[in-house]
Write a structure and sequence with these properties.
Blueprint: H1 3-9, E1 10-12, E2 18-20, H2 30-58, H3 65-78, H4 83-92, H5 98-107, H6 111-123, H7 130-142, H8 147-154, H9 165-177, H10 181-193, H11 200-211, H12 216-228, H13 235-247, H14 251-263, H15 270-282, H16 286-298, H17 305-317, H18 321-329, H19 340-352, H20 356-369, H21 377-388, H22 392-404, H23 411-423, H24 427-440, H25 462-474, H26 478-489, H27 496-508, H28 512-525, H29 531-543, H30 547-559, H31 566-578, H32 582-594, H33 601-613, H34 617-629, H35 636-645, H36 649-661, H37 668-680, H38 684-696, H39 703-715, H40 719-730, H41 737-740
Antiparallel strand pairs: 1-2
Helix pairs in contact: 2-4, 3-5, 5-6, 5-7, 6-7, 7-8, 7-9, 9-10, 9-11, 10-11, 11-12, 11-13, 13-14, 13-15, 15-16, 15-17, 16-17, 17-18, 17-19, 18-19, 19-20, 19-21, 20-22, 21-22, 21-23, 22-23, 23-24, 23-25, 24-25, 25-26, 25-27, 26-27, 27-28, 27-29, 29-30, 29-31, 30-31, 31-32, 32-33, 32-34, ...
Family: Belongs to the PPR family. P subfamily.
Pfam families: PPR, PPR_2, PPR_long
InterPro entries: PPR_P_subfamily, PPR_rpt, PROP1-like_PPR_dom, TPR-like_helical_dom_sf
Length: 741
């Protein structure tokens, strides 16, 4: 086959599996017939082996619908839903009954397997009834699938199966779980159009759905419609209404429903009383709550732990913590035991009012009873209360209590301990906790795995991690501090303080390369480095004997808008100069002068001299111009003296020519020195040109030197230049036309 033919031969069958399309065989082709027979034989062998294997699983077990159903579910979970699998199931069970179908639907791994089996089994001759339809709808509702159960329900009558309100209640709950309340209400309204009788159960379910979303006015309308339809509300109806209106803080309406219930002859039970008492406690109306409690006892009903938990929380929330604590301590005399919600209802209010001794006692009781609260905020409240009162060790005990209860500590818990241990002068304790955080990888765990709060509420505050990082960097543990910071960076931390502390820490520990890497990260994130951090980094490179890197760091410091000190600039220039990097030192000198730093002129003079000695005359002249513009003195005479003594006549000539053009002040002795050097080097024409420029600018030269120069010019055959020079300097034939010319 070619590549194109190979691709065309692979087609997808109707069940989504890949099959190889064989070419049509020629009539009477024995090879093609043998291949077809071999393929069929292989498929039959695989099928028989699989059936034999599954039959072996049933061997020794009674062939009950449960066992057969479990076997079918295992087959569906291990194989794709194809015709071959359907044939395997059909060969295993020739005829299906209701009990077996329900068993398979119950045991299906997911709703897709259940739905495939539900639709296929009907093709085998099995007729679904109400129970199988209801089971399939419940499975789909559990997986929050809305359209599938809706289609199945509205398809029931076509199959001759009558629906009832239970199907529509399941569908309403499906939309309610998805938060689509309006669609749930439409389903309720459609029941009437379809002729489905709406009983009190349907209305109760509707009230539960709409009141969870706070639709109190809609609940009132449907309650009136319920009465108009002749549906009598029961105890559950009123309990749901009281609960919903209490949830929306509409206790007057809830109380009217409670009174209306009693006028209709309905006797409230413990659940109903607990609902109305909880509503009054939520609205901090403890007088009405106490009246309901007295009425409850008068009706011969015994309050349970739910009743007392609501009252305790109500007292605590109403600034009557002592009464709530007293009632908590009297629970044993009422014949009830506190549960985890009872403790949680009291603990936050004790912490708010700085009653930390009682709060810690209750926490210890919870640990002994292994009560794990769903609301994890009580731990942070207790830790905050202990830290506020200055008892950081007590806050640390709260963290250990969380460990005993197997409650995952969040970064915010450690953040509070870090901050307060450092404030209390115990940074070593904070470092021990940091080791725990790093070992557990708390900052790397996704927030959803331990909390439902947003990331901003679960990360550490700058006031917590900055003191710890600073302590580590100042005590030779910068590596650990960097690990900590890199984990914080994954949480979105972009605070400049820890970065600068790390740069300074690495610099102090003689690891400037690591500090440079951090600076690169800071530049990418737009975090501005500190001037002191740059200063320590430059000094670290200098101490390490790497002035080139020190200069790069110094440039970065200047680019960041920081002005290096004169002493730092001197250190860098001296280090570069001593290392033989004169031009690099010259560039540092240029940056120093451009920043109007007029110190370190002694090292500047050395750099200028070295530039000229090495032949970098143009660069040296540029630096001299810059110094002149910045009003810094330049000793031209000294430079000329050094150059002439070192036989650098070309550089000396360029410097003197530059000085003459710029009208710099140059001593006569320097002129003579340059001219003597040129004559000694045999560069008489150059000396002649320089002397002419000196004379044109009103300068004077040594007569003896001039005569020697004239003599040298005549000796070399430059008689014309010698004649001009003799007339110019010595004044011979000054009145003749030739001399004037």
């Amino acid at each position: 086959h070619t590549e194109q033919e190979f691709v065309e031969d692979h087609l997808f069958d109707t069940h989504g599996s890949v099959s190889l399309k064989s070419e049509p065989a020629a009539i009477g082709d024995p090879c093609a017939e043998d291949e077809a027979v071999a393929s069929e034989t292989l498929g039959a062998q695989e099928e028989s082996l699989f059936r034999a294997k599954e039959e072996t699983r049933l061997r020794g077990k009674p062939r009950t619908p449960e066992n057969v159903g479990a076997l079918i579910c295992r087959m569906m979970s291990k194989r794709a839903w194809t015709t071959r699998l359907q044939n395997s199931i059909r060969s295993l069970v020739p005829e299906f009954n209701q009990e077996l179908v329900l068993s398979v639907l119950d045991g299906a791994k997911n709703y897709e397997q259940a739905l495939n089996f539900f639709r296929w089994v009907e093709k085998t001759g099995f007729r679904h009834d109400r129970s199988t339809y209801l089971k399939m709808v419940q499975i789909l509702v559990k997986d929050r699938k809305h359209n599938h159960p809706r289609c199945i329900i509205f398809d029931m009558q076509k199959k001759g199966v009558e629906w009832d309100e239970q199907f529509f209640i399941e569908l309403m709950n499906s939309y309610a779980k998805a938060g689509i309340v309006q669609e749930a209400v439409k389903i309720f309204q459609k029941m009437k159009d379809l002729g489905v009788k709406r009983t009190v159960i349907s209305y109760n379910n509707l009230f539960d759905v709409i009141l969870k979303r706070g639709r109190t006015f809609m609940a009132k309308r449907y309650f009136n419609a319920m009465l108009r339809d002749g549906v009598t509300p029961n105890l559950v109806t009123y309990t749901v209404l009281i609960w919903g209106f209490s949830l929306s803080s509409k206790m007057e309406t809830a109380k009217r429903f409670f009174d209306d219930m009693k006028t209709r002859g309905l006797v409230p039970d413990v659940v109903c009383y607990n609902t109305i008492i909880n509503g009054f406690c939520r609205s901090k109306n403890m007088e009405e709550a106490e009246k309901c409690l007295a009425e409850m006892k008068g009706n011969g009903l015994k309050p349970d732990i739910v009743t007392f938990t609501s009252l305790i929380k109500g007292y605590a929330a109403s600034d009557r913590v002592d009464e709530g604590l007293k009632l908590f301590n009297e629970l044993g005399s009422h014949g009830v035991k506190p549960n985890v919600r009872t403790y949680v209802s009291l603990l936050p209010y004790l912490c708010e009012r700085d009653r930390m001794t009682e709060a810690h006692k209750l926490l210890n009781e919870m640990v002994k009873k292994r009560f794990v609260p769903n609301d994890r905020s009580i731990f942070i409240s207790m830790m905050a209360g202990h830290c506020k009162s200055g008892h950081v060790e007590k806050a640390f005990q709260v963290l250990r209590a969380m460990d005993k209860l197997q409650v995952h500590a969040e970064p915010m818990h450690y953040s509070m301990l870090f901050e307060n241990f450092c404030k209390a002068g115990k940074p070593k304790k904070a470092v021990e906790l940091l080791d725990e955080v790093l070992n557990k990888g708390l900052l790397l765990i996704p927030v959803t795995s331990y909390t439902l709060e947003p990331r901003s509420n679960s990360t550490m505050e700058p006031s917590a991690y900055n003191p710890v990082i600073k302590y580590l960097c100042e005590n030779g543990q910068t590596q650990k501090a960097e690990i900590f910071l890199r984990q914080l960076m994954k949480c979105g931390i972009e605070d400049s303080t820890p970065f600068n502390n790390l740069v300074m820490g690495h610099s102090k520990e003689g690891m400037p390369e690591a500090a440079v890497e951090l600076l690169k990260i800071m530049n990418r994130r737009g975090i501005s480095p500190d001037s002191h951090a740059y200063c320590l980094l430059v000094k670290s490179f200098l101490e390490k004997g790497d002035p080139a890197e020190a200069k790069i760091s110094l440039d970065g410091m200047i680019e960041s808008g920081h002005l290096p000190s004169a002493s730092l600039l001197r250190e860098v220039m001296e280090s570069l100069f001593n290392d033989g990097r004169v031009q690099t030192a010259s560039r540092v000198m240029k940056s120093m002068l451009e920043k109007d730093v007029r110190e370190n002129l002694d090292i500047v003079a050395k750099i200028l001299e070295a530039l000229l000695m090495r032949g970098h005359v143009e660069e040296a002249l540029g630096r001299i111009v810059l110094m002149t513009n910045k009003e810094c003195p330049v000793d031209i005479d000294h430079l000329l003296d050094v150059l002439c003594k070192k036989d650098k006549t070309i550089a000396a000539v360029k410097l003197l020519d530059f000085a003459l053009e710029r009208n710099y002040s140059v001593r006569f002795s320097s002129y003579d020195l340059v001219l003597d050097a040129l004559c000694s080097a045999g560069k008489t024409l150059t000396a002649y040109a320089i002397l002419c420029k000196i004379c044109e600018r009103g300068g004077a030269a040594n007569q003896i030197g001039c005569k020697a120069l004239i003599k040298s010019l005549n000796a070399e055959g430059h008689t014309k230049q010698a004649d001009i020079l003799s007339r110019m300097i010595l004044g011979k034939d000054s009145s003749s036309k030739k001399a004037n010319k």
